[in-house]
TrEMBL record:
Keyword Transmembrane carried by entry: yes
GO CC, any one term: membrane
Official protein name in the record: histidine kinase
PROSITE patterns per UniProt: HIS_KIN (PS50109)
Keyword Transferase on entry: yes
Stretches that traverse the bilayer: 135-156, 163-181, 193-216, 223-239
């Protein structure tokens, strides 16, 4: 188990035990008065628990004490499980009885099925306790009510299953708190059954809510059927008339919820720690609520703890933890939405910039096209004007006119191919191709152009290079590389073409001894109409390298560049290499 999990697991467990033991300890320090004792003014002002009741008949109990002479009037407060038969006068509010002290011992006779739990206090303290109880109850109702409205608003705008479970849990708590506030001392069997049902549903709703929030299914045999059977069994046992069975079932339900959250934290589910801490506090406080039903000798419920039990504020820590969990999840979703929005804005800005650059590149390309078209068209137009006045000059003008028309033809063909490549409209007629043989054919065709310029063209195509592609387009790639090298190599220079294999790739390197390309310009070599500033102008269209790189990409390859100013450049076509032996077997 990762060491970072141990502190929180120990802390949550110790927190539950500490709260439960602290309640038992603090309750034991509250004032008590045994049967036959004397009630002092200080104990009466603090609210004293009467202990040591004697059973005088079936369902009948008696208690006697002597009040201090300073005490004139006392108030008895009891839970809804008993009724005073003798010793006091019942007030308008159920569960409260007035006692007039005459200095003589007071004898109380009470009708109750189990050992009574009764507290005696002064009228002023009784009124203050009543106000405090109502204040706590209203506080709990307000907290659960506001939380319910908030979650309902979230559920209205965002229908999520876990929010529905949260609403169910809050509805149970809200109805239960309102019932206790509206009927504080109701002793009907129906009300008692409804109160116990609320406690059971509250525990079940807390378990279901934890499972829904964390997205972790409940561990139950046979899936949903088993979970349903366990829920029904829990509800029935929690309504048992036997106190130990009822209390044991409720404590088991509380511990199951905490163990479930410990399991979720063990699995490192996001937000499990928040629910675990809230559940740990609530579980520790709930122990104070269920212990009085057992009538244990070490926990006779005091008046202060009775007020706290009636207020239902002990469930607020778990509800607060769930609320923090929900708010955190929505905040994270909002953060992710903001991140997506920022990412979308960034991509839109990038796309807008790319479109602007593309428009600018198109405008620049059009200007270059107009410039390249204007020069040969101007030469052809001048030649035709000259022939109009001097037809005898046709033999002298014809070579120049043919050269200009040839440039126009190459330019239009390159523009057409570049446009098709940009629109992804070039279809390849693919098959097995010996790249070295195609390179040899290209070098043979370019030999005349090299001789015309005074450039030595050497080719080493003996290395067999079997690739998959379109033979015509591969010839075009190599031809563009070779002619580009010839254009940029001065007379007396050398262009060397070498076919070789390396690292599973077919490589065709075209090295020249031209002017070279500066490092700052090498990144733009394959852009349209790129011409290096380090060298004289030539008659290329400016599209050859762009077309060659696009065709190489269509063949799952690429063209690499190595260049040094003053020493020349080396363009290398790299394509996936096929195995000769395997192809021969096929």
């Amino acid at each position: 188990m990762p060491s970072k999990k141990i502190p929180l697991i120990l802390f949550s467990t110790l927190l539950t035990l500490s709260l439960a033991l602290a309640g038992i300890f603090l309750n034991a320090r509250e004032p008590v008065m045994k049967n036959g004792g004397t009630l002092s003014p200080a104990d009466a002002a603090a609210g004293t628990t009467l202990v040591g009741w004697e059973q005088t008949a079936p369902n009948q109990w008696s208690f006697a004490f002597t009040p201090d002479p300073e005490l004139e009037t006392l108030v008895l407060c009891m839970n809804y499980q008993g009724r005073l038969l003798e010793g006091g006068t019942e007030t308008e509010q159920k569960g409260l009885y007035h006692l007039r002290c005459t200095g003589d011992p007071v004898h109380l006779i009470l009708q109750c099925e189990t050992i009574p739990v009764i507290w005696v206090s002064t009228p002023a303290q009784s009124a203050a306790n009543e106000e405090l109880r109502q204040l706590f109850q209203l506080l709990a109702i307000a907290c659960f009510g506001m939380t319910f409205v908030f979650v309902l608003a979230l559920f209205y705008y965002k229908h999520q299953r876990e929010l529905g479970y949260f609403l169910f849990y809050l509805a149970v708590m809200l109805v239960w708190s309102v019932l206790i506030y509206r009927f504080p001392a109701e002793d009907g069997e129906l009300f008692r059954l409804l109160s116990m049902l609320c406690f059971s549903f509250m525990l079940l709703a807390a378990i279901w809510l934890s499972s829904a929030l964390l997205g972790l299914p409940l561990a139950a045999p046979q899936g949903r059927v088993g979970a349903t059977v366990l829920a029904i069994s829990f509800g029935l046992l929690s309504l048992s008339p036997v106190p130990f069975i009822r209390v044991g079932t409720l404590i088991a339900g509380m511990l199951y919820c905490q163990l479930f959250l410990l399991r979720a934290y063990w699995k490192e589910l996001e937000g499990a720690s928040q629910l675990l801490l809230g559940c740990a506090v609530t579980t520790g406080l709930r122990v104070w609520v269920v212990l009085p039903s057992l009538r244990l000798p070490f926990f006779l419920e005091s008046l202060d703890f009775y007020i706290l039990r009636c207020s239902r504020i002990y469930d607020l820590p778990f509800a607060l933890g769930c609320m923090i969990f929900v708010c955190r999840r929505f905040a994270q979703q909002f953060d992710r939405t903001e991140q997506l929005a920022r990412e979308l804005d960034r991509r839109v800005a990038q796309r807008t910039q790319a479109l602007a650059e593309q428009v600018e590149a198109r405008e620049s390309m059009m200007l270059n096209i107009f410039h390249d078209l204007r020069s040969p068209l101007f030469a052809v137009s001048n030649g035709l004007d000259t022939l109009t006045t001097a037809p005898d000059l046709l033999p002298d003008l014809l070579p120049a006119l043919r050269e200009r028309m040839g440039f126009l033809r190459r330019l239009t063909e390159d523009l057409f191919l570049a446009a098709k490549l940009e629109q992804k409209q070039v279809m390849l007629n693919e098959d097995q191709v010996m790249l070295n043989e195609q390179t040899a054919l290209v070098c043979g065709a370019c030999q005349a152009e090299a001789n015309k310029k005074g450039v030595t063209l050497r080719a080493d195509t003996t290395q067999p290079l079997l690739v998959w592609g379109d033979a015509v387009r591969l010839q075009q790639v190599v031809q563009n590389l070779v002619t580009n090298a010839i254009y940029y190599t001065p007379a007396g220079g050398q262009v060397e073409v070498i076919c070789r294999a390396g690292e599973g790739a077919a490589l065709v390197s075209v090295r020249d001894t031209g002017c070279g390309i500066p490092p700052e310009e090498q990144a733009a070599v394959f852009q349209r109409y790129f011409r290096t500033t380090n060298g004289r102008k030539h008659e290329s269209t400016g599209l050859g390298l762009t077309i060659a790189q696009e065709l190489a990409h269509l063949h799952q390859g690429e063209i690499l560049l190595e260049s040094e100013v003053g020493k020349g450049s080396c363009f290398t076509l790299r394509l996936p290499l096929l195995e000769l032996d395997e192809e021969a077997d096929e």
